[in-house]
Write a structure and sequence with these properties.
The structure holds two protein chains of two kinds. Chain A has a single domain, classed as Four Helix Bundle (Hemerythrin (Met), subunit A) (Up-down Bundle), CATH 1.20.120. Chain A starts with 9 loop residues before the first helix and ends with a helix. In chain A, helix 4 packs antiparallel against helix 8. Helices cover 76% and strands 0% of the residues of chain A. By secondary structure, chain A is an all-alpha fold. Chain B has two domains: 95 residues, no CATH class; 163 residues, Orthogonal Bundle (Cytochrome Bc1 Complex, Chain D, domain 2), CATH 1.10.760. Helices cover 48% and strands 0% of the residues of chain B. The chains are: A mainly alpha, B mainly alpha.
Chain lengths: 229, 273
C-alpha cells in the first residue's frame, strides 16, 4: 500500500464517496473478491498468450523454411510505421497504468483523462494500421491467392505465404485493439459517472491487464515481422 | 487505504492494491522506449541472421518482462499470479521447441523456391546426386532413407501397406501387389504422384526437392516389377529436359521468372544503401 503517499480521495471532495464493494457470499471480503478477479484475469492472459502462439509458431516454421522469401517480403513492410505503432502502444500502456493509479487513489478526473489518452492512442494505432493495409492492397501484397505483385513474386516465391501470416497476425492483434477500444470507451463512460474509486476499481484493473497484454503481443510482432537486417 | 473491511487479507494476496507511483510509471515508459530504439538499431547491424533474430527476441523479452513486472504489477503481486504467467511462457516455449525438433531434423531438401516446382536439380540440403532419373545405388540409398522417414508409417517398412498408420478406410498401397503397378510403371509417374498427392487418400509431398522424389520413386519401383523405360517426353514432364547433362538441363538454379530491368536496378540501389 502506498501509505507514504498523500491519499487524496477526490471522490470524497465531490461529496460523493464510492461505497465499499459488496462482495459475493463465497468471498471472505471485498479484497478476497478482488484478488480472485485479478487471478482470473491472469489466467485469461495465459490463455491469450497461447491463443496467439500458433500463429507465432507457424510464422517461425515458415520463416526458417523459406528464409530468403520471407526476408525479401518483410523488406516490403514499412518498419518506420511499425516503430511508430510500437511507440504509440507503449505510451498507451503508460496512460493505462496512470489510469489504474488514478482509480486506486480515487482521482476521478485523472482516471477519465488517462482513459481518454489511452483510447486516442489506440485509435492512432488503428489509423497507422489502416495506412499500412491500404498500401498493401494498392501494391497487391495480399494473402495467398489474392496476392498479385509479380515483381516481388519473382524474388520471393513464398511472399503470398508471408503476407497471409502478416495479415492474420496483425489482423488478430488489431481486432484485440478494436475490442479494447470498445471496453475502454465503456470504462470511460463509467468513470465519468463516478463508478470507480478507492473502494472499487476492479474493471479498471482488469482492463489494464488486458491492454498491457495487447501491448505485449505487439512487442513481439514488431521485431518478428518488421525488423529484418 | 482506510476503507478496506479486512486488513488481514491485504498481505494474504500479495500487495493487492499496490499503486505505481508517477515516477515509476514514467521510468518504465522511458526504459521501454529506449529498448525499442535499441531493437531498431540492433536490426541495422548485421550479426548474421540467426544472431540478429535471437538478439531481437531477447530484447523483446526484456521489454515484455518490464511491461509484465511494472505496468501489469506482477512484481508486487501474489506469487500465484507470477506462477500463472510463467507457466504460459513455459507452454509457448514448449510449443516452439518441440516443433523445432521436428522441423530442424528433417533431412530432405525442401527449398521449394519457385512456382515451377519441377526442379531438375537439388536446392537446399539434399545430396547432389548426378542423373537422378537413372537408378543407381546412391539414389536408391537416399530414397530408402527418405522412405523410412516419410512413407513407412503407412506403407510399411517393406512396402506391404502394413505400416502402423495403415488403419485407414482405404488401405495404403501394397507395392508388392500387381494391382499397384497397373497404371504406374515409370519413375516419372511416381514423381508426379509424390508432387501432387492422391486426394483424398495420400497427401502431396511438394516440399521434397526433385532429387528426393527421384530417390523415393526408384526405391518404391524396386518393390514391383521391372519399370517401363522412360522416354524423353515422360522425363521432360518432370523437368528433365536434357539427358546429356548431369542435372537434367535445368542449370542448377530454379527456373525464375524474368525480373524487369528497372526493378532489378531499383533493388540493387536499395540494397546498396
Amino acid at each position: 500500500m502506498a501509505a507514504h503517499e498523500t491519499q487524496v480521495d477526490s471522490s470524497e471532495l465531490d461529496g460523493y464517496v464510492v461505497p465499499a464493494q459488496h462482495h459475493a457470499h463465497h468471498f471472505r471480503s471485498a479484497d478476497h473478491q478482488f484478488a480472485t478477479a485479478k487471478q482470473g484475469m491472469w489466467i485469461f492472459v495465459l490463455q491469450e498468450v497461447l491463443f496467439f502462439s500458433p500463429l507465432f509458431v507457424a510464422y517461425l516454421i515458415f520463416k526458417f523454411m523459406y528464409f530468403e522469401s520471407f526476408h525479401a517480403a518483410a523488406k516490403e513492410l514499412d518498419w518506420v510505421l511499425g516503430a511508430v505503432n510500437t511507440v504509440i502502444l507503449l505510451i498507451s500502456s503508460f496512460t493505462m497504468a496512470r489510469a489504474v493509479t488514478a482509480a486506486q487513489r480515487g482521482n476521478r478526473a485523472a482516471l477519465s483523462e488517462n482513459l481518454f489518452w489511452t483510447i486516442l492512442c489506440a485509435f492512432g494505432f488503428l489509423i497507422v494500421k489502416y495506412l499500412e493495409y491500404s498500401h498493401k492492397f494498392h501494391v497487391g501484397t495480399l494473402p495467398g491467392s489474392f496476392f498479385h505483385n509479380d515483381e516481388l513474386l519473382a524474388i520471393a516465391p513464398q511472399a503470398p505465404l508471408f503476407f497471409t501470416l502478416y495479415f492474420c497476425m496483425t489482423g488478430l492483434h488489431g481486432l484485440h485493439v478494436a475490442i479494447g477500444i470498445g471496453i475502454l470507451i465503456w470504462l470511460w463512460i463509467r468513470s465519468k459517472r463516478g463508478d470507480f474509486g478507492v473502494n472499487y476499481y476492479t474493471p479498471v484493473e482488469m482492463t489494464g491487464l488486458y491492454w498491457h497484454l495487447v501491448d505485449l503481443v505487439w512487442i513481439y510482432l514488431f521485431p518478428l515481422l518488421y525488423l529484418v537486417s | 487505504m482506510s476503507h478496506h473491511d479486512n486488513h488481514k487479507d491485504d498481505h494474504e494476496f500479495g500487495d493487492l492494491h499496490h499503486t505505481l507511483s508517477k515516477s515509476t510509471t514514467r521510468s518504465t515508459l522511458v526504459a521501454l522506449l529506449i529498448l525499442t530504439i535499441v531493437t531498431v538499431i540492433a536490426s541495422r547491424i548485421d550479426l548474421g541472421s540467426s544472431w540478429n533474430f535471437m538478439l531481437a527476441m531477447a530484447i523483446a523479452s526484456v521489454k515484455a518482462l518490464v511491461v509484465t513486472m511494472y505496468f501489469m504489477g506482477l512484481k508486487f503481486d501474489h506469487i500465484e499470479n507470477r506462477a500463472i504467467f510463467y507457466s504460459s511462457v513455459l507452454f509457448i516455449l514448449t510449443f516452439i521447441i518441440l516443433t523445432a525438433t521436428d522441423i530442424f531434423t528433417r533431412h530432405s531438401d525442401w527449398q521449394v523456391g519457385t512456382r515451377d516446382v519441377f526442379l531438375a536439380q537439388k536446392s537446399g540440403s539434399g545430396p547432389n546426386i548426378k542423373r537422378p532419373w537413372e537408378a543407381s545405388p546412391e539414389i536408391l540409398a537416399h530414397g530408402k532413407k527418405l522412405y523410412d522417414i516419410n512413407c513407412a508409417v503407412c506403407h510399411g517398412a517393406e512396402g506391404k501397406g502394413d505400416g502402423p498408420g495403415s488403419g485407414l478406410p482405404i488401405k495404403p498401397r501394397n507395392f508388392h501387389d500387381a494391382v499397384a503397378w497397373k497404371n504406374i510403371r515409370r519413375g516419372s509417374d511416381l514423381n508426379t504422384m509424390l508432387l501432387k498427392g492422391i486426394a483424398p487418400y495420400m497427401p502431396a509431398y511438394a516440399q521434397l526437392g526433385s532429387t528426393d522424389r527421384w530417390g523415393l520413386s526408384h526405391y518404391v519401383l524396386s518393390f514391383g516389377p521391372a519399370p517401363v523405360v522412360e522416354d524423353g517426353k515422360s522425363l521432360a514432364a518432370v523437368g528433365i529436359v536434357d539427358t546429356t547433362k548431369d542435372d537434367g538441363g535445368a542449370g542448377g538454379a530454379p527456373k525464375q521468372r524474368q525480373i524487369p530491368i528497372d526493378f532489378a536496378v531499383k533493388r540493387y540501389i536499395q540494397s546498396a544503401k
